[in-house]
Design brief:
heterotrimer, A mainly alpha, B mainly alpha, C mainly alpha, A: mainly alpha, 2 helices, B: about 85% helix, elongated
């Protein structure tokens, strides 16, 4: 693969337009962001959930 | 020492055979499925001879694969439930060899009939005699691999209540190479190409499976029991 | 050194060890991602043939690499858990599965999104995508098996065996799919993704993103692992103290 644009740096509109492929490029990056963010947040929420569960069990005096 | 262990193996295998004779549906049902499912395809696609001939290797192989999957649940379940599997782990003989024996019996009851029934299906799909022969050869080499790899899946899920569906999920990805080489060998032969390489590939998979699958199955059974 | 490793075998030590490592992987992840994204989306020049659509490779290729890398880590942890019976290895192996599945899914989805402008179809049965699809099934099977067991120790042993069987099969599957693809390849579709030599200006952001993905993987792995440890050790005193501390 080799270089193909005349000017080296894109303008902002060129950045979003991605030479017409904006749908595919931004869908890909958007999907990656969503998946990787979700994968990151899920253990954070799970941890809070776990600790809450443990607290509830302790208050009830249950054997853990 | 060798005499006692082969004697033990023979006893085990004979027991498996007699049990199978009493529970005919266990091994007959997958065979019936093999035929019924294969027949569905022309019904769904159309009776065009040319098309059926082309898709025959792939379809017959896939249906064989699915039939093998159906038969796997019964491989270890009965022995697991009545405790005889646990007894086998405690025996002084090599657990892996006993397992290989069990799988061999299973194949004789499920895989071999498949091979013998395949000419019937080949007729439904208008495969000629030469192609049918190649089909049977690929099935002969390939169905033992299906039984061996399937045994691992069966062993991993033997303790679970709804294990049979799960076996399919675990084992189907592992079946991909056998399917590819088996079905494509038949297609290649109808195109007139030399398929000795194809058969050797399936053969190597078989050797690999015979060597490694009993070990993995033994480990999986031990994990499920203990 | 051996003493340090055996100390880690205790889940409590493992938990705090992971906690200490976390910022060392989390922050570089963010930085590498931002640098890589800027370089890949802005700095790198457009491709002659594919124009700007090729930029998808900065997600697709690292995701595909990671999908295999994570499986290797999972299988090695599984082997360790079977050989040395260490609980920490079980935890790591289990934690790898959802991450690996996510990467595989991402590789497939971005591969499809890249393929549409290139080949005109949303799916193409080429060797790489087909292999990735089978890999996804391997991951999903592992996760399904894991959730089917009630006892965590049995689950760990069973999934460990499955992971090792899988890792032996992956090169075989890969080879068979490649073989199958070259067999059926028509004269129309020639997919040469990744086979051509790449310009340095494009290789650098790719490598940065690949490294970013690796750091991301470890970050998320540490987080999942810590949660699994908390779950397993929920009955112990130190977990109670940890809960009170937080």
């Amino acid at each position: 693969m080799g270089a193909g644009r005349e000017r080296a740096i894109m303008t902002l509109s060129e950045f979003f337009y991605m030479d017409g492929y904006y749908l595919y490029v931004w869908a890909s990056y958007g999907l990656a962001l969503v998946v990787m963010l979700a994968l990151f947040i899920s253990p954070v929420r799970r941890k809070r959930q776990l600790l809450k569960q443990l607290g509830r069990k302790k208050r009830r005096g249950q054997r853990l | 020492m060798i005499n006692t262990s082969t004697h033990a193996l023979k006893t085990l295998l004979w027991r498996d055979f007699t049990l199978a004779a009493r529970n005919k549906s266990e091994w007959m049902n997958p065979l019936l499925f093999f035929i019924f499912a294969a027949v569905l395809f022309p019904l769904g696609i159309g009776p065009d001879t040319v098309i059926l001939k082309q898709i025959a290797p792939g379809i017959i192989w896939v249906v064989a694969l699915l039939a093998a999957l159906l038969s796997l649940d019964t491989l270890f379940r009965a022995d697991y439930e009545d405790g005889s599997l646990e007894q086998l782990t405690l025996s002084p003989y090599s657990f892996s060899s006993l397992i290989l024996g069990k799988i061999a019996v299973h194949w004789l009851l499920t895989g071999l009939p498949l091979i013998l029934l395949s000419p019937l299906l080949a007729t439904f799909f208008h495969l000629d005699a030469a192609a049918t022969l190649i089909l049977m050869q690929t099935l002969l080499l390939g169905t033992p691999v299906l039984s061996l790899i399937g045994a691992i899946g069966s062993a991993l899920t033997v303790g679970l209540k709804r294990g049979s569906m799960l076996i399919s999920l675990l084992v189907l990805p592992l079946y991909v190479p056998v399917l590819i080489f088996g079905a494509n060998a038949v297609s290649a032969s109808t195109a007139g190409l030399d398929i000795s390489g194809h058969l050797m590939l399936i053969g190597s998979l078989l050797v690999l499976a015979i060597t490694l699958a009993p070990l993995a199955t033994a480990a999986a059974l031990r994990a499920s029991i203990g | 050194m051996l003493q340090a490793i055996t100390k880690l075998a205790s889940l409590r030590n493992f938990y705090f060890f992971c906690g200490k490592l976390l910022p060392w992987f989390a922050w570089p992840t963010l930085i590498l991602m931002l640098v890589g994204l800027y370089w890949g989306l802005v700095e790198a020049p457009a491709d002659y043939q594919q124009k700007d659509s090729y930029r998808i490779i900065f997600i697709h290729v690292p995701a595909a690499w990671m999908s295999l890398f994570v499986y290797m880590v999972m299988a090695m942890s599984a082997a360790a858990s079977l050989i040395w019976k260490t609980k920490a290895s079980e935890v790591v192996a289990n934690s790898c599965a959802p991450v690996g599945a996510a990467f595989t899914f991402l590789a497939l989805a971005t591969g499809s999104l890249w393929g549409k402008p290139m080949w005109g179809t949303w799916w193409e049965w080429d060797a790489r995508l087909t292999s990735e699809l089978v890999l996804l099934f391997l991951y999903l099977g592992y996760i399904a098996l894991q959730s089917a067991f009630e006892d965590k120790r049995t689950a760990a042993r069973a999934t460990a065996i499955l992971a090792i069987v899988g890792v032996v099969n992956i090169p075989i599957i890969h080879y068979s799919v490649e073989w199958w693809f070259t067999l059926h390849q028509g004269p129309t579709v020639q997919v040469l993704k990744g086979k051509q030599a790449m310009d340095t200006s494009m290789l650098i952001p790719l490598m940065i993103m690949a490294t970013a993905f690796k750091f991301y993987f470890v970050t998320v792995l540490l987080m999942f692992s810590r949660n699994e440890v908390l779950e397993r050790e929920s009955h112990t005193k130190w977990v109670q103290e940890e809960r009170e501390r937080l």
